[in-house]
Amino acid sequence: MTLIISGSNLKIENIVSVARFDEKVELHPDAKKRINACRAMLEKKIEAHEIMYGVNTGIGEFSEVVLNDDQVKEFQKYLIYNHAAGIGDPAPIEYVRGAMLGRINVHAHGNSGCRLEITQTLVEMLNKGVTPFVCQKGSVGACGDLAPMSQIALLMMGEGKAYYKGELLEGKDAMNKAGIPIPGLQARDGLAAINGSNVLTAMSAIFLYDAMRWLKQAEIAAAMSLEALKANMKPYHPKIHEVRGFRGAMRSAAAIRKLVAGGDIAEGKVKCKVQDAYSMRSTPQVIGAAHDALDYARSQVEIELNGVGDNPIFFPEENIQLSGANFQGSPVSLPMDMAGAAITMVCVLSERRMNRLNNPALSVGLPAFLTKGAGMFFGFDA
């Protein structure tokens, strides 16, 4: 199956299917037309010597420095050299592939001004398994991913390093072995390849995909603990959660009720306390809050995946270019901080239930530290 990239409707599941499971990708014909139309407008503006940030000016504090025609041709190469720095271990291949997919989807809008060859080269790299070597650390806060994206862009010049068929090769060798032409960088191409938060967003998408599945495992573990600890199941009654109104809590309580359905605690066949400890009766509220946090994070990540994270941005229909800060990663990083806190919160709740299972004073008759032959064997005793 091939994923058609049009600039819209990209989901976190698509990132995982391409980044982790090597699904093929293809640019939608309309996306190609948009990219070419934007490029044609850009080239006319270059010929007219219209001042455009990062095209015929320097970047950052040098944005007021206007480049001459010869410098415009060389500038993109030095832009990539300047930013292609990082430290630490190699980033996981799935993060890099996810970032490449995200960048392709940005270009597909036709607002970035690069040549079609740049975008198509990223497509070929994904499809033929050429994955640039990118260091894990290099981005500064949430202010875009210039450093890691530049390590990807080095391949556009036949430089850097890349993985191909399990080997780490020189970039040029990897591209040649895969049969991918090296497009080089012309005016605007380099900045259009790097000026977004695509690594941050790809990492976030993959994390959310896994975390949402992990929450299901957390609910299964919670249900098993409740069975073992002879829990009072009234805190899971739908009315309790409906009257408060949080969607995640209603969802989590329903999932756990389904898991224990037909068992002794659900059928009231075992004696239970009037009210259990927080770790047993607060599960829907805690895991539910995590569900809600991850749902919000997902919505933000998918907006970013399908938006134009670039600078400057070109609008061919109006024949204008605007410089701003759509590379900024805060709209993704802030909800992802919340997602991390949510996962921690669920882990703390799980640890408290584990304590009750192991502690003979709290475990309602279970063997101390869940082992027979206590003393000879340690069980879960630290």
Describe the protein in words.
Strands 4-6-7 form a three-stranded antiparallel sheet. The chain contains 15 helices and nine strands. α1 packs across α9, α4 (93-107) packs across α9 and α14 (283-305) packs antiparallel against α15. It is elongated, with a radius of gyration of 26 Å. The mean pLDDT is 94. It has helices spanning 12-19, 29-47, 69-83, 93-107, 116-128, 146-153, 171-178, 189-194, 198-228, 238-244, 247-260, 264-267, 278-281, 283-305, 330-358; strands spanning 2-5, 24-27, 87-90, 131-132, 135-137, 161-164, 167-170, 313-315, 320-322. The protein is mostly helical.
Q: What proportion of the residues is helical, as a percent range?
A: 40-55%
Shape, principal axes of CA atoms: elongated
- Stretches where pLDDT is under 50 for at least 5 consecutive residues are none
Strand element count = 9
The average pLDDT value, as a whole number, equals 94
- Oligomerization status of the protein chains: single chain
Helix-strand topology string: EHEHHEHHEEHEEHHHHHHHHEEH
Give the helix tally: 15
For the sheet with most strands, the description reads: 3 strands, antiparallel
**Would you tell me the structural class of the helices and strands?**
mainly alpha
Strand arrangement across the biggest beta sheet: 4-6-7
Strand percentage lies at 5-15%
Query: Gyration radius, to the nearest Å?
Result: 26 Å
The rounded distance between the terminal residues' Cα atoms is 50 Å
